[in-house]
Design brief:
Number of domains: 1
Largest sheet: 15 strands, antiparallel
Order of helices and strands: EEEEEEEEEEEEEEEEEEEEEEE
CATH topology: Maltoporin, Chain A
CATH superfamily: TonB-dependent receptor, beta-barrel domain
Number of strands: 23
Distance between the termini: 46 Å
Strand content: over 45%
CATH architecture: Beta Barrel
């Protein structure tokens, strides 16, 4: 309806300088960076036909509501970084750090800036166990500033429910401490180029962000307030990647991750789990240049089960329920052929997305549907084709 239109303006910039020096068996990289964003979101005014002045079944006048300012934020982050790498025989160490200063102003609340200075260190070790095997250890720190993001402004609207995400006035920055250990094997076995990576990761989150779901008002408007969890959260798991190239014209890559993502304490729906976060997922890519100028590709993406909040008509919309999704395997294929034309390339291609039609089967419908109850692969089974022209196509 006319009540549901809005306008968003999101201007961003990024500028910086970087310097690198090689000093024998060591190197130094230093730089400065400045990034900024200016976000303004308005709910547009509309003719208020519900309160039109009517006489003798004729509309005599219709008032027009004014635009409503939803967000007006400016954010500027200035930073400097330094990285030092040293290699001694089979051993390599990297030491670095980044110092950031962020300045965030929310003009819809007040003009006082939310500022912070953050130092993010990192350290990494690499040891060459064998010419074909490297062992790595690393630690890094990161953060997310307490600001509004443009994707938060996408309201989720149905006839009975409108979701708006806002930041808690006392929201603090989220800080992460990440540890990683890995073994990386790369070797030609016979005629087959083989690469295998096995890594474990552990990330500790301090003041992690989460959404506190409010109760709908009389107009169906619900505020999701982003706030800091009372304690922290942990994300940990194991990741593997495999690369095989048995032939000159054939290659195969794949990866699989098993992880857990949990808050220290229960939050919405009396659970500690992260919503919309699968505990296992993976992928594979295969490319085969079966004839000159032609390539056949096969891709697959696996997404494991995850927990999805639901606030549709099949449950109490004030409290909702937590549902567990199915797992999905999205298989796709593509074939293309290149024609050479006076130094340029004309490429014809066709393919199929989601061959098995592994797709969400329980979409909500009707005026009281839950518009946010969407998960899984983006597209159902579909066939596509097209043409590309360029001088760097492969």
């Amino acid at each position: 309806s006319l009540k549901d239109y809005g306008r968003s303006e999101d201007l961003t910039y990024n500028t910086g300088l970087q310097y690198k020096a090689v000093l024998g068996n060591s190197s130094i990289i230093a730089g400065i960076e400045n990034t900024g964003g200016f976000l303004k979101v308005e709910k547009l005014g509309y003719p208020d036909y519900d309160n039109a002045y009517i006489e003798n079944d004729s509309i005599l006048s219709v008032s027009h509501t004014l635009n409503t300012l939803i967000a007006d934020q400016s954010s500027v982050t200035s930073g400097a970084f330094l990285q030092y790498d040293l290699r001694i025989n089979r051993f390599k160490i990297g030491l670095g750090g980044r110092l950031d200063h962020y300045n965030i102003i929310d003009n819809t609340i007040n003009t006082k800036a939310n500022t912070g200075i953050v130092f993010s260190p990192r350290i990494s070790f690499m040891y060459e166990v064998l010419p074909s095997l490297q062992a790595r250890l690393s630690y890094s720190q990161g953060y997310r500033a307490p600001q509004i993001f443009s994707e938060d402004m996408d309201t989720q609207t149905s006839g009975s429910r409108q979701v708006i995400i806002v930041n808690d006035p006392g929201l603090k920055q989220e800080t992460s401490h990440s540890f990683m250990a890995s073994l990386d094997f790369n070797k030609r076995i016979g005629t087959v180029l083989t690469g295998l990576l096995v890594e474990g990761f552990y990330t500790r989150l301090e003041n992690p962000f989460l959404n506190e779901i409010g109760v709908p008002d009389e107009n169906g408007k619900v505020l999701y307030t982003r706030m800091n969890a009372k304690n922290g959260a942990v994300v940990k798991g194991i990741n593997t990647e495999l690369k095989i190239k048995p032939l000159k014209d054939y290659s195969f890559t794949s990866g699989f991750t098993i992880q857990t993502s949990k808050f220290d304490e229960e939050h919405e729906f009396n659970t500690r789990v992260f919503f919309r976060t699968p505990s296992d997922y993976g992928y594979f890519n295969m490319d085969w240049d079966f004839v000159r100028n032609a390539c056949f590709s096969l891709t697959g993406t696996y997404t494991g089960k995850m927990f999805i909040p639901y606030f549709g008509p099949d449950t109490d919309p004030d409290f909702g329920e937590l549902r567990k999704s199915n797992s999905f395997f999205d298989l796709g294929s593509k074939i293309h052929y290149n024609f050479k034309l006076n130094g340029a390339t004309l490429q014809l291609f066709t393919g199929i997305k989601n061959i098995f039609n592994s797709y969400q089967s329980d979409f909500d419908s009707g005026i009281n549907r839950d518009p946010a109850y969407v998960y899984g692969p983006v597209s159902p089974r579909s066939i596509y084709f097209g043409i590309k022209i360029g001088n760097r196509l492969k």
